[in-house]
Structures are given as C-alpha cells and as structure tokens.
Amino acid sequence: MKYHHNPVMKKEVLKYLKLEKNGLYVDCTLGGCGHAELILKNIGPEGKLIGIDHDKTAIENANKVLSKYLDRIILFKTNFSNIKKVLKKAEINKVNGILADLGVSSHHFDEGKRGFSFNHDGPLDMRMDKDLKLTAYNIVNEYSSSAIFRILKIYGEEKFASKITSQIVRAREKKAVKSTRELASLVKDAVPAKFSSKMKIHPATKTFMALRIEVNKELEALETFLNDAPYLLKKNGRLCILNFTSAEDKIVMNKFKELSIQCKCPPKLPVCVCGGKSDFKLITRKPLRPENEEIISNPRARSTKLRVLEKI
C-alpha cells in the first residue's frame, strides 16, 4: 500500500518555523514527508533536514519522496523522544528549528492490518513501530480491568470508561477479542443508546485513541522530547508542535509556560532574586487552529493545535 498522509496546517507551519535560508532543521515525525518537503523547498540549496520516524515504512517512503534532496537530508528510524541522541550521532550541536507532528498518519488509519481504525477490520495491533512488543491485543485481553479503566479514563477521557471496561472483560472471558471491528462493536454496545445516538464521532473513537497512546507510550515519549528539544535550538530557533489530543496539548502547554517564565525563584520568596530572565519566549499564548477551509477538505485536521516556542 502506497504511503500517504495529508500534512496539516502547512501554511502556519511554514510561517511559524520562521525558516532561514541554508538553515538546519529537524522534522521529528516524517510520516508522508509533506512537512519535510515543504521545509526543504524553502531553506535554500544549502539548507539541511534531519528526518526522524519510528515507522520503518515512513523511512522507506522518505527515501523515495525526498529522493531529489538526498544530499541534504539525514534520516533516522527511531522515536522522536531520542532527538538528543540523533543529533549527537549526526554530530550536530544546535539547529534552527524543530517540528513535531504528533498525529497518526492517514496511512496508518487507512491500512487495516495496522489496526489503528475501526473503519477497516484488522488485528488489534496499533504499533507505530513494528519492533515494539506490546499491542492493543495484549492490553484488551491481558491487562487487568483497573488498568484498562485507567487507560480509557486518562488517555481517552472516556465518559463511559467503566461500562466499556466491563463490556470488554465480559467478552474476553468467553473468547479473546481479536479484531478492530469486534472491539468497536463491544464499545458501541457498552455506551447507552441515548448518548451514542447524539455523538458526532463513533462511540469507539476515544477507546481506540487511548489504546494507541498506551501501546506507543506516546505521552511518555512527548515528555522526554520536551525535556531535550528546546535546548537543541540555536538563538531565535523555534520549536513547533502540532498536537491532536487534550492530554498532549496540556503537556505541551505546561512545558512551554514553564520554560518561558522569567522569574525562577521559589514561590515563597517575597522578591525576585534570580534576575528574571528566561532563555525562551512563548510565541503562541493560545494554540493556533486550522482554518475552516482546511477542516472541510481534511476532516482529520479538526482537532489540531499548533504551539510555538522560541529560543531567545
């Protein structure tokens, strides 16, 4: 299956990365290379890009899609949380900008055998990196009921987490839950009809999202990334993060605020004694959202939020 992905908020990414001619940039989540190609086209003939993705098929696709830029790119198959190690391996100290698109690629959603979507019947997999051991099957069939409830409640913010968990546990006692559509059906049956009939999204949407986050340890990876990435920027360099869930956005928002706070003194001190200077500036006080035209043409962009931080 041909790798495809519709990059979101391309115009905004191009503007807020503040690309410099012949600059050095990192695309931490290559996907279908839409953003990567956009960056390469706008940083001049001497500009270079470090491309990262933990999906082997994305790296293979990048070698094809970006073939005319191969002398200007270095590709790494790894999780974006390893950005510090990647730059060290590439013998690079600082970069002009970093982009991280935290969304799942359209390719993953549309390839049934990857198990990300209930729109295609497939195995309960959901691994972005096929080298990972844990799958959604393991969670659904082997995790304790309390662990499943926690995942649905915290990662999916699922209102009916208790009912869905009970439904899953009852079903797996009879036989293993193996497919995406089987799981989606269980979830739909667990949600009271008077609520599911009014939902704008499929009742299983949040459950699938929560399981995917657990399988790929997405929030842990994001926190590790945020502890390193800002310090890899050159002066005036920018970190742009596209996120799609409230859990992700909360982590990014809090970290960006923490980094941009000028006074670092303990709250109990009556006056500032630290000098009140920060190494970072918050470019987006509130997250940027896609324009209506983009949402209409690409409905998967509807929940996108873009936050931007600058190294002073």
Tags for this model:
Rossmann fold, alpha/beta, 14% strand, 312 residues, DNA polymerase, domain 1, single chain
Number of helices: 14
Q: Rg, please? A: 21 Å
Average predicted confidence as pLDDT: 93
The number of E-state strands comes to: 7
The fold-level CATH name of the largest domain is Rossmann fold
Percent of residues in β-strands: 5-15%
Structural class: alpha/beta
Question: Helical residue percent?
Answer: 40-55%
Give an account of the 3D structure:
There is one protein chain. With 312 residues, this protein is of the alpha/beta class. Helix content is 41%, strand content 14%. Strands 3-2-1-4-5-7-6 form a seven-stranded mixed sheet, with helices on both faces. Strand 2 (48-53), helix 3 (56-65) and strand 3 form a beta-alpha-beta unit. Helix 7 (145-155) runs antiparallel to helix 8.
Task: Give a concise summary.
The protein is α/β, with parallel strands linked by helices and 312 residues long. It is built from 14 helices and seven strands.
Task: Please outline the helices and strands.
Elements: H1 10-16, E1 24-27, H2 34-41, E2 48-53, H3 56-65, E3 73-77, H4 83-89, E4 95-101, H5 106-110, H6 136-142, H7 145-155, H8 161-174, H9 180-190, H10 193-196, H11 205-216, H12 218-228, E5 233-243, H13 246-260, E6 280-282, H14 292-297, E7 305-311
Helix pairs in contact: 7-8, 7-11, 8-9, 12-13
